[in-house]
Amino acid sequence: MTSSADGTAELAHATVAGALPVIAIVGPTGSGKSDLAIDLALTLGGECINADSMQFYRGMDIGTAKITAEEMREVPHHMLDILDVTEEASVAVFQQQVRQRIAEIQGRGRYPIVVGGSGLYVRAALDVLEFPDTDPAVRAALEDELKAKGPGVLHARLLQVDPESAARVKDDRRLVRALEVYQVTGRPFSSFMPTRQYVQPSLQIGLNGDRAQLHERLHERVVLMEKAGLLAEVETLEARGLRQGKTASRAIGYREFLRLLDAERGQLPQGEKYTVEEAIDDTVTATRQFARRQITWFSADPRVTWLDWSDAEKADRAIEAIRQFEATSPAQSN
Length: 334
Description:
Shape: globular
Oligomer: single chain
CATH superfamily of the largest domain: P-loop containing nucleotide triphosphate hydrolases
Number of domains: 3
Helix content: 40-55%
Structural class: alpha/beta
Protein backbone atom coordinates (compact mmCIF):
# COMPACT_ATOMS: atom_id res chain seq x y z
CA MET A 1 0.00 0.00 0.00
CA THR A 2 1.47 3.35 -1.02
CA SER A 3 0.68 7.02 -0.95
CA SER A 4 0.52 8.83 -4.27
CA ALA A 5 0.83 12.52 -4.99
CA ASP A 6 -2.91 12.62 -5.74
CA GLY A 7 -3.64 10.91 -2.44
CA THR A 8 -1.54 13.47 -0.61
CA ALA A 9 -3.47 16.30 -2.24
CA GLU A 10 -6.78 14.67 -1.32
CA LEU A 11 -5.70 14.39 2.30
CA ALA A 12 -4.65 18.01 2.35
CA HIS A 13 -7.94 19.15 0.86
CA ALA A 14 -9.88 16.93 3.26
CA THR A 15 -8.60 18.95 6.21
CA VAL A 16 -11.48 20.92 7.66
CA ALA A 17 -11.10 24.66 7.22
CA GLY A 18 -10.03 26.18 10.50
CA ALA A 19 -8.95 22.82 11.92
CA LEU A 20 -6.47 22.90 14.76
CA PRO A 21 -2.84 22.54 13.64
CA VAL A 22 -0.81 19.38 13.95
CA ILE A 23 1.74 19.50 16.77
CA ALA A 24 4.78 17.22 16.64
CA ILE A 25 7.09 16.55 19.58
CA VAL A 26 10.45 15.36 18.27
CA GLY A 27 13.99 14.77 19.45
CA PRO A 28 16.31 12.01 20.62
CA THR A 29 15.24 8.95 22.55
CA GLY A 30 15.19 9.52 26.29
CA SER A 31 14.52 13.27 26.05
CA GLY A 32 11.03 13.21 27.58
CA LYS A 33 8.92 13.57 24.43
CA SER A 34 6.01 11.48 25.73
CA ASP A 35 5.75 13.40 29.00
CA LEU A 36 5.66 16.75 27.21
CA ALA A 37 3.13 15.48 24.66
CA ILE A 38 0.80 14.34 27.45
CA ASP A 39 1.17 17.63 29.31
CA LEU A 40 0.20 19.49 26.14
CA ALA A 41 -2.69 17.15 25.41
CA LEU A 42 -4.11 17.65 28.90
CA THR A 43 -3.71 21.42 28.77
CA LEU A 44 -4.86 22.05 25.20
CA GLY A 45 -7.25 19.19 24.64
CA GLY A 46 -5.36 16.82 22.38
CA GLU A 47 -4.70 13.22 21.47
CA CYS A 48 -1.29 11.62 20.98
CA ILE A 49 -0.17 9.75 17.87
CA ASN A 50 2.88 7.51 18.08
CA ALA A 51 5.59 7.99 15.45
CA ASP A 52 8.17 5.63 16.97
CA SER A 53 8.34 2.74 14.50
CA MET A 54 9.41 0.16 17.10
CA GLN A 55 6.44 0.98 19.31
CA PHE A 56 4.14 -0.26 16.55
CA TYR A 57 4.90 -3.80 17.70
CA ARG A 58 2.71 -5.68 20.14
CA GLY A 59 4.68 -7.00 23.10
CA MET A 60 7.75 -4.83 22.49
CA ASP A 61 7.10 -2.81 25.60
CA ILE A 62 10.08 -2.79 27.96
CA GLY A 63 12.78 -2.46 25.30
CA THR A 64 11.05 0.41 23.50
CA ALA A 65 10.14 2.27 26.72
CA LYS A 66 6.55 2.15 25.50
CA ILE A 67 4.23 4.35 27.51
CA THR A 68 1.98 2.51 29.95
CA ALA A 69 -1.75 3.02 30.46
CA GLU A 70 -1.05 4.72 33.77
CA GLU A 71 1.51 7.07 32.21
CA MET A 72 -0.99 8.06 29.51
CA ARG A 73 -3.09 9.78 32.20
CA GLU A 74 -6.26 9.02 30.23
CA VAL A 75 -5.01 10.87 27.14
CA PRO A 76 -6.04 8.88 24.02
CA HIS A 77 -3.07 7.38 22.19
CA HIS A 78 -3.03 6.10 18.61
CA MET A 79 -0.71 3.97 16.43
CA LEU A 80 0.61 1.84 19.29
CA ASP A 81 0.56 -2.00 19.16
CA ILE A 82 -0.62 -2.20 15.56
CA LEU A 83 1.78 -4.87 14.23
CA ASP A 84 2.92 -8.36 15.13
CA VAL A 85 6.69 -8.83 15.39
CA THR A 86 6.71 -10.86 12.19
CA GLU A 87 5.25 -7.99 10.16
CA GLU A 88 7.41 -5.41 8.41
CA ALA A 89 6.81 -1.77 9.21
CA SER A 90 5.97 0.36 6.16
CA VAL A 91 6.29 4.12 6.22
CA ALA A 92 3.94 4.38 3.23
CA VAL A 93 1.21 2.45 5.05
CA PHE A 94 1.87 4.49 8.18
CA GLN A 95 1.39 7.70 6.20
CA GLN A 96 -2.09 6.70 5.11
CA GLN A 97 -3.08 5.53 8.59
CA VAL A 98 -1.64 8.47 10.51
CA ARG A 99 -3.25 11.08 8.28
CA GLN A 100 -6.59 9.41 8.77
CA ARG A 101 -6.07 9.57 12.55
CA ILE A 102 -5.08 13.24 12.31
CA ALA A 103 -8.24 14.08 10.36
CA GLU A 104 -10.40 12.20 12.87
CA ILE A 105 -8.83 14.01 15.83
CA GLN A 106 -9.26 17.39 14.15
CA GLY A 107 -12.83 16.45 13.40
CA ARG A 108 -13.37 16.10 17.14
CA GLY A 109 -12.05 19.62 17.64
CA ARG A 110 -8.87 18.41 19.33
CA TYR A 111 -5.15 18.83 18.69
CA PRO A 112 -3.37 15.94 16.95
CA ILE A 113 -0.03 15.57 18.76
CA VAL A 114 2.46 13.42 16.86
CA VAL A 115 5.21 12.17 19.17
CA GLY A 116 8.27 10.13 18.30
CA GLY A 117 11.86 10.04 17.20
CA SER A 118 11.62 8.08 13.94
CA GLY A 119 12.45 10.95 11.61
CA LEU A 120 11.10 9.56 8.36
CA TYR A 121 7.82 8.58 10.02
CA VAL A 122 7.41 12.09 11.43
CA ARG A 123 8.00 13.54 7.98
CA ALA A 124 5.53 11.07 6.47
CA ALA A 125 2.91 12.37 8.89
CA LEU A 126 3.62 16.06 8.38
CA ASP A 127 5.16 16.68 4.96
CA VAL A 128 4.24 16.51 1.30
CA LEU A 129 6.02 13.22 0.76
CA GLU A 130 5.34 10.73 -2.02
CA PHE A 131 6.27 7.06 -1.68
CA PRO A 132 6.87 5.12 -4.90
CA ASP A 133 5.08 1.84 -5.53
CA THR A 134 6.68 -1.51 -4.71
CA ASP A 135 6.56 -4.84 -6.52
CA PRO A 136 7.74 -7.92 -4.58
CA ALA A 137 8.32 -9.88 -7.80
CA VAL A 138 10.56 -7.18 -9.28
CA ARG A 139 12.44 -6.86 -6.00
CA ALA A 140 12.95 -10.62 -5.73
CA ALA A 141 14.30 -10.78 -9.29
CA LEU A 142 16.75 -7.97 -8.55
CA GLU A 143 17.85 -9.64 -5.31
CA ASP A 144 18.46 -12.89 -7.21
CA GLU A 145 20.49 -11.01 -9.81
CA LEU A 146 22.46 -9.32 -7.05
CA LYS A 147 23.38 -12.69 -5.57
CA ALA A 148 24.30 -14.14 -8.95
CA LYS A 149 26.21 -11.22 -10.47
CA GLY A 150 27.19 -8.96 -7.58
CA PRO A 151 26.44 -5.26 -6.99
CA GLY A 152 28.71 -3.97 -9.77
CA VAL A 153 26.35 -4.94 -12.57
CA LEU A 154 23.32 -3.46 -10.82
CA HIS A 155 25.17 -0.27 -9.92
CA ALA A 156 26.25 0.23 -13.54
CA ARG A 157 22.62 -0.11 -14.63
CA LEU A 158 21.47 2.38 -11.98
CA LEU A 159 24.17 4.81 -13.10
CA GLN A 160 22.63 4.84 -16.57
CA VAL A 161 19.03 5.50 -15.49
CA ASP A 162 19.48 7.42 -12.22
CA PRO A 163 23.00 8.81 -11.72
CA GLU A 164 21.91 10.89 -8.72
CA SER A 165 20.77 7.81 -6.80
CA ALA A 166 23.79 5.85 -8.00
CA ALA A 167 26.01 8.41 -6.31
CA ARG A 168 24.05 8.15 -3.06
CA VAL A 169 23.42 4.44 -2.51
CA LYS A 170 25.64 3.01 0.21
CA ASP A 171 24.41 -0.58 0.48
CA ASP A 172 22.82 -3.38 -1.52
CA ARG A 173 19.34 -2.86 -0.05
CA ARG A 174 19.16 0.73 -1.30
CA LEU A 175 20.67 -0.31 -4.64
CA VAL A 176 17.93 -2.87 -5.17
CA ARG A 177 15.25 -0.41 -4.05
CA ALA A 178 16.41 2.30 -6.45
CA LEU A 179 16.32 -0.09 -9.40
CA GLU A 180 12.96 -1.49 -8.28
CA VAL A 181 11.44 1.99 -8.22
CA TYR A 182 12.72 2.75 -11.71
CA GLN A 183 11.41 -0.52 -13.14
CA VAL A 184 8.00 -0.18 -11.47
CA THR A 185 7.35 3.55 -11.99
CA GLY A 186 9.53 4.52 -14.94
CA ARG A 187 10.85 7.38 -12.82
CA PRO A 188 14.25 7.67 -11.15
CA PHE A 189 14.21 7.08 -7.42
CA SER A 190 15.82 10.49 -6.91
CA SER A 191 12.68 12.16 -8.32
CA PHE A 192 10.81 11.09 -5.18
CA MET A 193 13.12 12.97 -2.81
CA PRO A 194 11.07 15.10 -0.40
CA THR A 195 11.01 18.82 0.20
CA ARG A 196 10.33 20.47 3.55
CA GLN A 197 6.71 21.40 2.90
CA TYR A 198 3.94 20.67 5.37
CA VAL A 199 0.81 19.04 4.00
CA GLN A 200 -1.22 21.21 6.43
CA PRO A 201 -0.39 23.75 9.18
CA SER A 202 2.01 22.04 11.59
CA LEU A 203 4.45 22.96 14.33
CA GLN A 204 7.40 20.82 15.39
CA ILE A 205 8.71 21.22 18.93
CA GLY A 206 12.04 19.56 19.60
CA LEU A 207 13.63 18.55 22.89
CA ASN A 208 17.39 18.62 23.30
CA GLY A 209 19.90 19.34 26.02
CA ASP A 210 23.19 18.45 27.61
CA ARG A 211 24.73 15.47 25.78
CA ALA A 212 26.49 14.03 28.84
CA GLN A 213 23.22 14.15 30.75
CA LEU A 214 21.45 12.35 27.93
CA HIS A 215 24.11 9.64 27.86
CA GLU A 216 23.68 9.06 31.58
CA ARG A 217 19.90 8.94 31.25
CA LEU A 218 20.13 6.40 28.46
CA HIS A 219 22.47 4.19 30.48
CA GLU A 220 20.15 4.29 33.47
CA ARG A 221 17.17 3.50 31.30
CA VAL A 222 18.76 0.39 29.79
CA VAL A 223 19.81 -0.86 33.22
CA LEU A 224 16.20 -0.43 34.39
CA MET A 225 14.94 -2.24 31.28
CA GLU A 226 17.07 -5.26 32.13
CA LYS A 227 15.85 -5.24 35.72
CA ALA A 228 12.24 -4.92 34.52
CA GLY A 229 12.54 -8.16 32.57
CA LEU A 230 13.74 -7.32 29.07
CA LEU A 231 15.30 -10.76 28.61
CA ALA A 232 12.02 -12.47 29.48
CA GLU A 233 10.16 -10.15 27.11
CA VAL A 234 12.57 -11.04 24.31
CA GLU A 235 12.16 -14.75 25.01
CA THR A 236 8.37 -14.40 24.87
CA LEU A 237 8.59 -12.50 21.58
CA GLU A 238 11.00 -15.08 20.18
CA ALA A 239 8.23 -17.65 20.50
CA ARG A 240 6.00 -15.30 18.46
CA GLY A 241 8.53 -15.07 15.63
CA LEU A 242 10.77 -12.17 16.64
CA ARG A 243 13.82 -13.64 14.90
CA GLN A 244 11.89 -13.89 11.63
CA GLY A 245 10.69 -10.28 11.75
CA LYS A 246 12.69 -8.16 9.31
CA THR A 247 12.11 -4.93 11.23
CA ALA A 248 11.46 -5.97 14.82
CA SER A 249 14.46 -8.28 15.09
CA ARG A 250 16.79 -5.36 14.35
CA ALA A 251 15.39 -3.18 17.14
CA ILE A 252 17.98 -1.87 19.59
CA GLY A 253 18.00 -3.96 22.74
CA TYR A 254 16.13 -6.84 21.17
CA ARG A 255 18.97 -7.94 18.90
CA GLU A 256 21.44 -7.73 21.82
CA PHE A 257 19.20 -9.69 24.17
CA LEU A 258 18.48 -12.29 21.50
CA ARG A 259 22.23 -12.85 21.44
CA LEU A 260 22.18 -13.11 25.23
CA LEU A 261 19.51 -15.80 24.94
CA ASP A 262 21.74 -17.70 22.52
CA ALA A 263 24.65 -17.41 24.97
CA GLU A 264 22.62 -18.72 27.88
CA ARG A 265 21.53 -21.69 25.75
CA GLY A 266 25.08 -22.43 24.62
CA GLN A 267 24.20 -21.64 21.02
CA LEU A 268 26.98 -19.16 20.23
CA PRO A 269 29.96 -20.28 18.13
CA GLN A 270 32.42 -22.36 20.10
CA GLY A 271 34.40 -20.38 22.63
CA GLU A 272 32.22 -17.26 22.43
CA LYS A 273 30.59 -15.84 25.54
CA TYR A 274 28.13 -13.01 26.05
CA THR A 275 27.06 -11.73 29.44
CA VAL A 276 24.19 -9.62 30.73
CA GLU A 277 26.66 -6.80 31.32
CA GLU A 278 27.84 -6.98 27.72
CA ALA A 279 24.24 -6.96 26.45
CA ILE A 280 23.54 -3.86 28.54
CA ASP A 281 26.72 -2.12 27.38
CA ASP A 282 26.06 -2.91 23.71
CA THR A 283 22.46 -1.71 24.02
CA VAL A 284 23.60 1.52 25.68
CA THR A 285 26.19 2.12 22.95
CA ALA A 286 23.67 1.47 20.16
CA THR A 287 21.08 3.70 21.85
CA ARG A 288 23.55 6.56 22.19
CA GLN A 289 24.51 6.23 18.54
CA PHE A 290 20.84 6.23 17.58
CA ALA A 291 20.21 9.34 19.69
CA ARG A 292 23.09 11.07 17.91
CA ARG A 293 21.57 10.25 14.52
CA GLN A 294 18.18 11.53 15.70
CA ILE A 295 19.69 14.83 16.83
CA THR A 296 21.44 15.19 13.47
CA TRP A 297 18.21 14.44 11.57
CA PHE A 298 15.97 16.85 13.44
CA SER A 299 18.63 19.57 13.74
CA ALA A 300 18.79 19.65 9.94
CA ASP A 301 15.15 20.79 9.83
CA PRO A 302 15.01 24.59 10.33
CA ARG A 303 11.30 24.42 11.10
CA VAL A 304 11.81 22.79 14.52
CA THR A 305 11.34 25.01 17.60
CA TRP A 306 13.83 23.72 20.19
CA LEU A 307 13.37 23.54 23.95
CA ASP A 308 15.72 22.35 26.69
CA TRP A 309 14.42 19.11 28.20
CA SER A 310 15.72 20.16 31.63
CA ASP A 311 13.69 23.40 31.61
CA ALA A 312 10.97 23.08 34.24
CA GLU A 313 8.88 25.56 32.24
CA LYS A 314 9.17 23.76 28.91
CA ALA A 315 5.46 22.88 28.76
CA ASP A 316 4.54 26.54 29.21
CA ARG A 317 7.10 27.53 26.58
CA ALA A 318 5.69 24.94 24.20
CA ILE A 319 2.16 26.27 24.70
CA GLU A 320 3.43 29.79 24.10
CA ALA A 321 5.04 28.64 20.83
CA ILE A 322 1.80 26.97 19.77
CA ARG A 323 -0.28 30.07 20.52
CA GLN A 324 2.17 32.26 18.64
CA PHE A 325 2.08 29.87 15.69
CA GLU A 326 -1.70 29.91 15.64
CA ALA A 327 -1.75 33.70 15.78
CA THR A 328 0.64 34.10 12.85
CA SER A 329 -0.25 31.14 10.62
CA PRO A 330 -2.31 32.37 7.64
CA ALA A 331 -4.10 29.03 7.41
CA GLN A 332 -5.63 29.54 10.84
CA SER A 333 -7.83 32.31 9.51
CA ASN A 334 -9.47 30.03 6.90
